[in-house]
Specification:
The chain is an all-alpha fold. The chain has 7 helices and no strands.
């Protein structure tokens, strides 16, 4: 009977928190299908340890940690048959709204960060965790979180500046082409 109570307790938790947990997973991996797989894997791993989580108010933090660890395992196990290129492909904008374009750009730009840096940025800025909470969730010192965040934000700024310069150079080139045609 205790096993049935455990199942119902876990199912209720998942039903209540699945949207927020999926958003967290989506911020850790760029592909929506991979985010669903990440969440499912984390839930399976957490289910076996559900009784060990004495304070269920910490279940979200526990699951985020499991997702981060799982994503890191996947990243380490991936095959490195990627070919580095000088220029990234254009981000597609599906619905044409400025907000969606900004989100797509941000998700694309987050891809230049190392997984550890991405985790720190996501937890600090999207999940709005404090430095101490982020350090605890990632198993780092607060100083490491601060320095990692500083380097990650500097890298993001540089990437956005580079993209802006590339955009302006292309725009100037197109205007020059129009003048020659006229």
């Amino acid at each position: 009977m205790a096993s049935s109570g455990k199942v119902l307790d876990f199912e209720e938790y998942v039903r209540n928190r699945q949207d927020a947990l999926l958003r967290s997973a989506r911020r850790l991996v760029p592909d929506p299908i991979d985010a669903q797989d990440l969440l499912q894997t984390a839930l399976v791993r957490t289910y076996g340890r559900w009784d060990g989580i004495a304070d269920k108010s910490l279940a979200d933090a526990y699951l985020r940690r499991v997702m981060i660890n799982t994503r890191t395992e996947w990243w380490r196990a991936r095959k490195l048959d990627e070919v580095p290129t000088e220029q990234l492909p254009d981000a597609s904008v599906e619905d044409g709204t400025e907000q969606h374009a900004d989100r797509a750009l941000l998700m694309d730009v987050l891809g230049v960060l190392a997984p550890k840096q991405r985790s720190v940025v996501v937890l600090r800025h999207w999940e709005q965790m404090s430095t101490e909470e982020t350090a605890e969730a990632l198993g780092m010192s607060t100083g490491t979180v601060k320095s990692t965040l500083h380097r990650a934000l500097a890298r993001l700024r540089q990437e956005l500046e580079n993209r802006d310069l590339d955009f302006h150079a292309l725009d100037r080139h197109e205007r020059g082409q129009e003048r020659c045609a006229a």
